[in-house]
Structure formats: C-alpha cells, structure tokens
TrEMBL record:
Organism: Xanthomonas oryzae pv. oryzae (strain PXO99A)
Database matches in NCBIfam families: phage_P2_V
InterPro entries per record: Gp5/Vgr_OB, GpV/Gp45, Vgr_OB-fold_dom_sf
Domain (Gp5/Type VI secretion system Vgr protein OB-fold) ranges: 13-80
Alphabetized Pfam families for the sequence: Phage_base_V
Protein known as: Phage-related baseplate protein
Amino acid sequence: MGNASSALSNAIRLGTVAEVNLATARCRVQVREMMTDYLPWLVTLTGTTIIWSAPAISEQVVVLSPAGDLADGLVLRGLYSDQFTAPATSDTLHMLRFADGAQLQYDTDTHALQATLPSGGTATITADGGITLNGPLTVNGTTQINGDVGITGTATVDIDVLGGGISLKHHKTTGVTAGSALSGVPQ
C-alpha cells in the first residue's frame, strides 16, 4: 500500500513555472525543492483550431506524472494564486485578459460584448469579403474613410458638410439670376 500511496502522491504535484522555452513550448517547474526538466504544457486546442498562450513565470501549475516520474510529466495550467488572482466574481462573465491590460469579455446576463485595449492600442479587422454590422452604430472620435461611401437613407449632419473644400452651409454661388435660370458653380 505504501508504494501505491507514494506513486499517487508523485503523480500529481503542485508547483510554479520557473522557466519557459517558447521555441519548444516547454517549461520548467519548481516543485518544492526540486526543479523539473523542460516539460510540455497542456493547451486547450491543438488541432485545426489552435490556441497559443505561453505560461507566465511564477504561474501556479499542476505537474501530472502518470508513472510518478517527473521526467515524463505534463504541465496542467490554470490555478489562480496570490500573484495571478481571479479577475472577476461573476458566474455570467467570461473574460480573457492579457498582460498589457487588454481585455475581451462577454456577459451572458446582460448580453454585452466588450473589447478594451490599453492606451495607444490599435485594432485591425481584415475581411476581404466585407463586414456587415446589424444595429445602430456610435463612433466617438474622428473617422477616416478611404474609399467611396454609399448611403441608403438620410445623412443628417448637425454642423456642415465640406465637398472639395466647399461648405454646403456657407458656400456662395456665381451668376445668380432671379427666375428660372440656374446659378453658377459654388465658390
């Protein structure tokens, strides 16, 4: 019974990530006074859909060693710790947070999806087939459109519209004649 108990206690060990080799997707784990060799870490997906996220130094992990030998171990990630605490306390919030503060979250209760980038962050969506947004859109900030714009419906502008440097609201026309004649071009 003693050997079975010892093998079981050696099969599952808590530790912290001490070193990471990104090229081989392996890490070394400090387990009490012992340092493991470089071991592979388990990931969520590695088939036709792949997720890459390397472990962080000091991340708390479990080393699974089926035969009790750490040399054959696998690193199971995902334990909250004092250094890497749970980012929320809601059972309806699903969140992905990055080291620089960028965050993606979805709340199944409020049906709200939010992406937040740190100051200076940028976002690019490339979709050669096009992008369709169904629903009202609010843009807070300057907008630059490089290409033609088609509008089906009314465009409402509360200040002015400029076309070729000519103000729609304040332009002057030449050759104004009373009656049915047409005015000249705007200035």
